[in-house]
Design goal:
It is a single chain. This protein has eleven helices and two strands, in the order ααββααααααααα. By secondary structure, the chain is mainly alpha-helical. Mean pLDDT is 74; it is low at 1-24. The chain crosses the membrane at residues 45-63, 84-105, 111-131, 143-162, 182-198, 219-243, 255-278.
């Protein structure tokens, strides 16, 4: 229900927007496509913007994996560039974030977005393990490739049906009185997810520093992640003007997820700095290598002429 999703929304507005004929809820003044997809009665511009921005965030994270998948496919050494700690903490953060969103009845767009995050994590982890096994083995195995294709295909099918089921279940969960212990557990999961998210960039920063290179990693992965995290946090904050009750209570309820999304952006700026710094180093090395073949033939030619001129 709308009152559960937006705790500051008045009961009068919610009652006016929802009528309940037998077997179905109808939203009178809400946006039909949002009602169908998210089971959410959105009746003002602020909530509408929240949903649209949240969908943009989801789109950014779905696109963010594609450049990295292509980069790993192009050089065939995805396991050397990516840190497994980065992927592990990212996946752990998304799992605990999903648990927290579900248990504390966060915005529907938050729940669905986290499901898409988990899907993109699985793609990156699958590719990492694929190249890890492939490059460590002395012979090629076609079975491994088909297993990866089957895994990605089945995950895509689950992805198409899971968000709708989650929103339906969470909507029915809101009609029941959630126990205090379940709600506390959800917020603990939310803050634990923030710790995982903030920790995820540290292994990748260290791996880049250790290699003194960002070769094999696509910057678009982190650039689109920054856009996704920024729009994710904005989708929560933009609801504030539509609230009738305490805005402070609303912020406290969503604080863990705001820390996890907006805090990671700061660390991604350090990753950006590494891409700029190490790219300069690699270009300097490349120019040195290119200058060597131009000098060597000249030196050899001078030596040869001096030998010919000697009596």
């Amino acid at each position: 229900m709308a009152t559960a999703r937006f705790p500051g929304k008045s009961a009068d507005v919610a009652a006016g927007n929802w009528s309940s004929p037998p077997g179905r809820l109808v939203c009178v003044n809400g946006t039909p496509w949002i009602l169908y997809l998210l089971e959410e009665c959105v009746d003002n511009v602020w909530e509408y913007c929240s949903v649209v921005i949240g969908l943009i965030s989801m789109f950014c994270f779905l696109l963010s994996t594609l450049p990295q998948v292509y980069e790993a496919y192009r050089n065939g050494k995805g396991e050397e560039a990516m840190s497994f700690g980065f992927l592990f903490f990212l996946f752990s953060g998304d799992l605990t974030s999903f648990a927290g969103c579900y248990l504390t009845s966060q915005l529907p767009i938050q729940v669905i977005t986290v499901v898409f995050y988990i899907f993109t994590d699985l793609i990156l982890i699958s590719q990492f393990l694929y190249y890890k096994i492939k490059n460590s083995s002395s012979r090629k195995s076609p079975v491994l490739k088909w297993l990866c294709f089957m895994w990605c295909g089945s995950a895509s099918l689950v992805l198409l049906t899971l968000p709708k089921l989650i929103v339906d279940n969470s909507a029915s969960l809101d009609t029941k009185s959630t126990s205090k212990s379940v709600e506390i557990t959800g917020y603990v999961c939310g803050y634990l997810a923030s710790v995982f998210y903030l920790s995820s960039r540290l292994p990748q920063l260290y791996k880049n520093f250790q290699r003194q290179s960002t070769e094999g990693t696509s910057y678009m992965l982190f650039a689109l992640a920054m856009m996704g995290n920024g729009t994710y946090g904005l989708s929560v904050i933009v609801v504030l003007p539509a609230l009738k009750g305490s805005k402070q209570t609303f912020i406290i309820k969503h604080l863990a997820w705001l820390i996890g999304s907006l805090g990671v952006i700061v660390l991604d700026f350090f990753v950006t700095a590494q891409f700029v710094m190490y790219r300069k180093n690699s270009s300097a090395k490349g120019s040195k290598l290119l200058s060597v073949p131009e000098v060597e033939p000249l030196l050899c030619e001078e030596v040869e002429l001096s030998l010919l001129s000697d009596p």
